[in-house]
Amino acid sequence: MVRDYHDFLKEIIIPEDKLQQRIKELGAEISRDYDGQALLIVCILRGGVMFLTDLIRHITTPVAIEFMAISSYGRGARESTGNVRITMDLISDISDCNVLIVEDIIDSGMTLASVMELLNARKPKSLEVCTLLDKAERREVQVPLRYRGFVIPNEFVFGYGLDIDEYYRNLPFIGSVDLSKYQVG
Ligand code: IMP
Ligand code: MG
């Protein structure tokens, strides 16, 4: 049975208005940096979707979007090893494009490091990353984060694209889980 999130919500760590305000700032920053240049945004499914659709509304330079889905095989359901497999690839060729990867959250950095290696092999003109959340203290591999919404503490979070066992992505805020009330995974 899927439970009501109120049963295990510990705290709303980023409310909707703060998320939207910061996303607007990120959009303005990206617009300045890529002024006059076309941009190809690669959204990593599924967590990045909410962020993508809000972010691109604040980008003023011409934007194309592409999607990619990956699955990582890990030590457990909540940890990645960097052994990623593309389960849905991009449709268009990214060579000579200014590519910006849009991600929901960077944790160990393993997933992103693998995605960057895969995409770099296709020779884009440039390749940068925009992540909404950064669990910086969990980092195991260094990944260059050109744009970053918020640094968050090491807690399991959900909402605004992020799931707990595939649910709750639709919530408009980022909340943390009370692990005594919900056993994640
Ligand atoms: P990494 O490879 O360890 O950086 O893992 C990144 C991926 O793990 C993200 O794209 C999310 O799908 C997932 N993830 C990491 N932390 C959380 C969290 O707190 N809530 C929901 N998903 C998370
Ligand atoms: Mg997930």
Can you walk through the features of this model?
The two termini are 14 Å apart. The chain has helices at residues 16-33, 49-56, 110-120, and strands spanning 9-14, 39-45, 63-73, 83-88, 98-106, 126-134, 147-151, 157-158, 174-177. Strand 5 (98-106), helix 3 (110-120) and strand 6 form a beta-alpha-beta unit. The mean pLDDT is 94. The strands form two sheets. A six-stranded mixed sheet has the order 4-3-2-5-6-7. A three-stranded antiparallel sheet has the order 1-9-8. The chain contains three helices and nine strands. The chain has 185 residues and is an alpha/beta fold. It binds inosinic acid and magnesium ion. Magnesium ion binds at residues 47, 163.
Task: Describe what is shown at a glance.
The protein has helices spanning 16-33, 49-56, 110-120, and strands at residues 9-14, 39-45, 63-73, 83-88, 98-106, 126-134, 147-151, 157-158, 174-177.
Strand content: 25-35%
| Gross morphology | globular
- Mean of pLDDT: 94
Oligomer: single chain
Cross-sheet strand order for the largest sheet: 4-3-2-5-6-7
Number of helices: 3
Question: Low-confidence parts, pLDDT < 50 over ≥5 residues?
Answer: none
Keywords:
about 180 residues; alpha/beta; 6-stranded mixed β-sheet; 3-stranded antiparallel β-sheet; 3 helices; 9 strands; about 20% helix; globular; binds inosinic acid; binds magnesium ion
